[in-house]
Automatic annotation (TrEMBL):
PANTHER family: CDK5 REGULATORY SUBUNIT-ASSOCIATED PROTEIN 1, MITOCHONDRIAL TRNA METHYLTHIOTRANSFERASE CDK5RAP1. Residues 26-142 form the MTTase N-terminal domain. It is an enzyme of class 2 (transferase). Residues 415-478 form the TRAM domain. [4Fe-4S] cluster 2 binds at residues 180, 184, 187. One of its GO terms (molecular function) is tRNA-2-methylthio-N(6)-dimethylallyladenosine(37) synthase activity. This is tRNA-2-methylthio-N(6)-dimethylallyladenosine synthase. Keywords: 4Fe-4S, Cytoplasm, Iron, Iron-sulfur, Metal-binding, S-adenosyl-L-methionine, Transferase, tRNA processing. Belongs to the methylthiotransferase family. MiaB subfamily. Residues 1-12 have a biased composition (Basic and acidic residues). Its main location: cytoplasm. Binds 2 [4Fe-4S] clusters. One cluster is coordinated with 3 cysteines and an exchangeable S-adenosyl-L-methionine.
């Protein structure tokens, strides 16, 4: 089972460091919780503050400014951040000049409540307001509380060149859309991240060109819902209907953007996340099949295998339509791996609905999964309209069953790789053995193998000798042709 996305379970968020600018004398400690978008946003924040005289530090105790980029997706994500704030408070007692700021989804959701409730917070900045940080930090340095949580119709940070924080120098994230218009009833994201808008393909290509020059080998295109990417000159996705005929006829959709990226940078490996099944087109699948450098992996959250529950969640597809999409994926890209997000114990979920989830999983046999017990979020449609009526023990029991089944399927999937030779991009040293490299194959499965003479960032062909349910273990047989 992959857990990289479930970062809220970490005690400490990802602390971020970067190369430092000479002449900058203020110290910024910034850590991120939650999704990859938050990691990517923290890189934008570091870039904006570098111009204000801040270098990043990994030592919280040394910091003049501490920023925590937060997640609201489930209650325990918020609780983790609250505990972290208490810890900052203890450091602040020793170092009273240290300023503390909350960024991201909790900032947006709780707004000024933070300044009132959590006395240690000096600064509250929502996901679309990072450009205002220089002013806000100035306010805070003058001893005043500062807040900006205005969501934007336009902001995409297209022209901010992110400082790559604690990067392995091999793989990077590039944001292509912000916000989400889907209004899944359980989800807080549309409220904390605002309406959906797409970024100019030119600025996406420029960012990738810059990454290539810096020797990066893999780019993940990021958005809450990448398949609904649509550039028509700017503005909200929902206003596309009102755009001029010229804007409509020259619009770029996600399949076209993928094609553009993969053609322009044949040596870069592309991934993308996340795909909402309702927006995934056959064009995207054909584009993936056409380009060797687009990884054969789709994260395709489904949340439930019951059409009734899907409807209550306001997901715009049935169980059968999802299965049809999976069939099409298997037909067009036979080697494609799939992963899911699943929620157990959503409002009104019966035992029969739960069985539908298990049987859908049997049908797909996902390679990986990210599974959660439903956590009611204040202000969402589900919180307003439905009763959170599945008892916690039942949610947890169903979750355990879903996780156990996923583990079985993950093992089934990793076994399919045995004996094959697969291209792996080396991303770092294996956590378990410093004499082994770790990387991923096109299907996003982690592969470890002896280092020999290979280097970080090499594309290597690896023969898969054995496996666990999460990892392939192999031996390199030479460089791949893409190296
Ligand atoms: N489109 C997004 C989804 C963000 S939320 C993306 O980029 O991944 C990630 C996952 O968290 C969702 O797919 C869902 O499975 C889970 N989730 C969201 N709200 C939740 C809630 N209220 N309770 C439990 N899980 C939730
Ligand atoms: Fe949330 Fe649904 Fe959008 S899960 S991020 S509202 S696609």
């Amino acid at each position: 089972m992959h857990t990289e996305k479930i970062i809220e379970e970490n005690k400490q968020g990802k602390p971020l460091v970067t190369e430092n600018n000479e002449g900058n004398d203020k110290k910024l400690f910034i850590e991120s919780y939650g999704c990859q978008m938050n990691m990517s946003d923290s890189e934008i924040v570091a870039s904006i503050l570098a111009k204000e005289g801040f270098n990043t530090t990994q030592k919280l105790e040394d910091a003049d400014l501490v920023l925590v980029n937060t997640c609201s997706i489930r209650d325990n994500a918020e609780q983790t951040v609250r505990k972290r704030l208490q810890y900052y408070n203890s450091v602040k007692r020793v170092n009273p000049s240290m300023k503390v700021g909350v960024l991201g989804c909790m900032a947006e959701r709780l707004k000024s409540k933070f300044l009132d409730e959590e006395k240690i917070v000096d600064l509250v900045v929502g996901p679309d307001a990072y450009r205002d940080l220089p002013n806000l930090v100035e306010e805070v340095e003058a001893g005043r509380d500062a807040i900006n949580v205005i969501l934007s119709k336009e902001e995409t940070y297209a022209d901010v060149s992110p400082v790559r924080l604690q990067s392995n120098g091999v793989s990077a994230f590039v944001s292509i859309t912000r916000g989400c218009d889907n209004m899944c009833t359980f989800c807080v994201v549309p409220f904390t991240r605002g309406r959906e808008r797409s970024r100019d393909p030119k600025s996406i290509i420029e960012e990738i060109r810059d990454l290539k020059q810096k020797n990066f080998k893999e780019v993940t295109l990021l958005g809450q819902n990448v398949d609904s990417y649509l550039w028509y000159g700017g503005g909200l996705k929902k206003d596309f209907k009102k755009a001029s005929e010229i804007a409509k006829s020259t619009a770029v959709d996600f399949a076209q953007l993928l094609d553009l990226c993969a053609t322009e940078f044949p040596k870069i490996r592309f991934r993308f996340s996340t795909s909402n099944p309702q927006d995934m087109s056959l064009d995207v699948l054909h584009t993936m099949a056409k380009h060797e450098n687009i990884c054969k992996y789709i994260h395709l959250p489904v949340q439930s295998g019951s059409t009734k529950v899907l409807q209550r969640m306001n997901r715009q597809h049935t169980r059968e339509e999802y299965m049809e999409l999976v069939d099409n994926i298997r037909k067009i890209i036979p080697e494609c791996s799939l992963s899911q997000d699943m929620i157990t114990g959503f409002c009104g979920e019966t035992e029969e609905d739960h069985q539908d989830t298990l049987s859908l999983m049997e049908y797909v046999k996902y390679d990986f999964g990210f599974m959660f017990a439903y956590s009611e979020r204040p202000g969402t449609l589900a919180a307003k309209k439905f009763e959170d009526d599945v008892p916690l023990e039942v949610k947890k029991r169903r979750l355990a069953e879903v996780i156990a089944l996923q583990q079985e399927h993950s093992h089934y999937r990793t076994k399919q790789h045995l004996g094959k030779v697969e291209e792996v991009l080396i991303e770092g040293t294996s956590k378990k053995n410093e004499n082994e490299w770790k990387g991923r194959n096109t299907q996003n499965t982690v592969v470890v193998f002896p280092k020999e003479h290979y280097k970080l960032g090499d594309f290597v062909n690896v023969k898969i000798d054995s496996c666990t349910s999460a990892t392939l273990i192999g031996t390199a047989v030479g460089y791949s042709k893409n190296n």
